[in-house]
């Protein structure tokens, strides 16, 4: 049976209204769709682009009914929205990726077991059902290791690095302190990687997949700092990463945009770190450097139309603007200096308050050679590092004032 196509004019619902939701809404609007954003945070950036805004908590049944009556199809922009809500909506509308995918991905343990069950390479891990199991888990995984909450962690939040035996008691105490009903953790071997790589996979309604070229990522304190496109991995290894990414996404068996993150070790091995069931920060460069962006792909998939080209038109380097770093390029000479750099493209997310570790925007540098884009990106990072974001906890600066509309 041919999948139904949603034509321009239809209302596309997105659960979550952060920058990913806002960039989805931008792509949808460009193609003539209206967007319904549901995010309990009235200041979430996507509300500014919404034809319909919903700001009640996700468990609000009356809002769920109104949201459902408003939209023709639903996607989500982060994996921590309630899977029950997704599945309820899925019984009434196309939801892409599926609620089943969301359930697997939003639990790190289920995700790792799923990947392992499909013979995909992941670093050794152990499941921790209660804090007293930490020592036993350490014995099986060894040092160094990372302990992560099974659910709700992101950007390095809810993670403990365990370097040696002297860290175990402290981490145990912290696990006890944050024990909630049903809370579980995963202990992963800390992979000594040479680089981190990610692959965006676009999985169309008929199961056909396309991959953007793999990219190199550098993180600082668990947060993405820099993405370089394309990767400098040897061609064969890059092809292997793409192949593994498609295998992982095919196993999930749902249309959608996915990002598969890898560790690449010195001996040439690839391990999957995790999968995001949505456009990803490391794919923001596609807005400026590719024929069709990851967000337009998300729109196309949701509407049941052909997925677009995934061609990289120019090498690119993307730098995240984190916390107060954003001020360095929006105020004073920093703004005009940035605008004067050839191929520099600034994206601001319109968040009203700056907080340490919060992603406020990004800059993509385009150039004829990756090395030139990287050089400009590193120049910006050096400039930003003169005021490191770690020192800025609790800083609140209004950057934009708009009132969301509620329906
Ligand atoms: P995650 O939230 O799991 O994506 O982790 C954020 C970042 O922490 C990753 O991109 C890595 O830089 C680092 N990290 C996470 N898990 C591991 C691991 N098992 N071994 C080494 N580094 C890791």
Any overview of this molecule?
The chain is α+β, with helices and mostly antiparallel strands and 407 residues long. It folds into three domains: 11-95, Rossmann fold (3-Layer(aba) Sandwich), CATH 3.40.50.20; 124-189, 2-Layer Sandwich (Dna Ligase, domain 1); 195-385, ATP-grasp fold, B domain (D-amino Acid Aminotransferase, Chain A, domain 1). Helix content is 32%, strand content 24%. It has helices at residues 19-30, 61-70, 83-90, 99-105, 108-117, 134-141, 165-177, 235-252, 286-289, 294-303, 325-330, 333-339, 370-385, and strands at residues 11-15, 34-38, 52-54, 73-76, 125-128, 145-149, 159-162, 185-189, 193-203, 209-211, 215-220, 223-229, 256-265, 270-276, 316-322, 344-348, 359-366. The strands form three sheets. Strands 9, 10, 11, 12, 13, 14, 15, 16 and 17 form a nine-stranded antiparallel beta sheet that branches. Strands 3-2-1-4 form a four-stranded parallel beta sheet, with helices on both faces. It has a four-stranded antiparallel beta sheet with strand order 5-8-6-7, with helices on both faces. Strand 9 and strand 10 form a beta hairpin. Helix 1 packs across helix 10 (294-303) and helix 3 (83-90) packs antiparallel against helix 4.
């Amino acid at each position: 049976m041919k999948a139904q196509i949603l034509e321009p004019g239809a209302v596309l619902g997105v659960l979550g209204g952060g920058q990913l939701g806002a960039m989805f809404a931008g792509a949808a609007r460009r193609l003539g769709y209206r967007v319904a954003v549901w995010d309990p945070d009235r200041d979430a950036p996507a509300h500014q682009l919404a034809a319909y805004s919903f700001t009640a908590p996700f468990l609000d049944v009356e809002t769920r009914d109104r949201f459902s009556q408003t939209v023709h199809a639903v996607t989500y922009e982060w994996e921590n929205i309630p899977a029950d809500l997704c599945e309820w909506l899925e019984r009434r509308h196309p939801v892409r990726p599926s609620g089943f995918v969301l359930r697997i991905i939003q639990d790190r343990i289920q995700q790792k077991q799923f990947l392992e069950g499909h013979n995909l390479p992941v670093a050794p891990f152990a499941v921790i059902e209660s804090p007293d199991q930490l020592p036993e888990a350490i014995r099986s995984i060894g040092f160094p290791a990372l302990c992560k909450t099974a659910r709700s962690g992101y950007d390095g939040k809810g993670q403990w690095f365990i370097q040696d035996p002297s860290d175990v008691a402290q981490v145990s105490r912290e696990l006890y302190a944050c024990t909630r009903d049903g809370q579980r953790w995963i202990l992963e071997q800390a992979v000594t990687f040479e680089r981190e790589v990610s692959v965006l996979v676009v999985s169309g309604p008929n199961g056909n997949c396309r991959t953007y070229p793999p990219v190199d990522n550098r993180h600082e304190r668990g947060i993405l700092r820099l993405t370089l496109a394309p990767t400098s991995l040897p061609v064969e290894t890059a092809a292997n990463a793409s192949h593994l990414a498609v295998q992982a996404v095919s196993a999930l068996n749902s249309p959608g945009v996915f990002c598969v993150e890898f560790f690449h070790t010195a001996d040439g091995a690839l391990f999957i770190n995790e999968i995001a069931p949505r456009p990803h920060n490391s794919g923001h460069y596609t807005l400026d450097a590719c024929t069709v962006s990851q967000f337009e792909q998300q729109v196309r998939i949701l509407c049941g139309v052909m997925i677009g080209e995934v061609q990289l038109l120019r090498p690119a380097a993307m730098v995240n603007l984190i916390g107060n770093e954003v001020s360095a390029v929006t105020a004073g000479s920093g703004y005009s200096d940035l605008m004067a750099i050839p191929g520099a493209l600034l994206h601001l997310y319109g968040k009203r308050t700056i907080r340490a570790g919060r992603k406020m925007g990004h800059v993509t540098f385009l150039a004829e050679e990756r090395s030139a884009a990287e050089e400009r990106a590193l120049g910006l990072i050096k400039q930003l590092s003169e005021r490191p974001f770690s020192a800025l906890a609790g800083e609140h600066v209004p950057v934009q004032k708009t009132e969301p509309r509620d329906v």
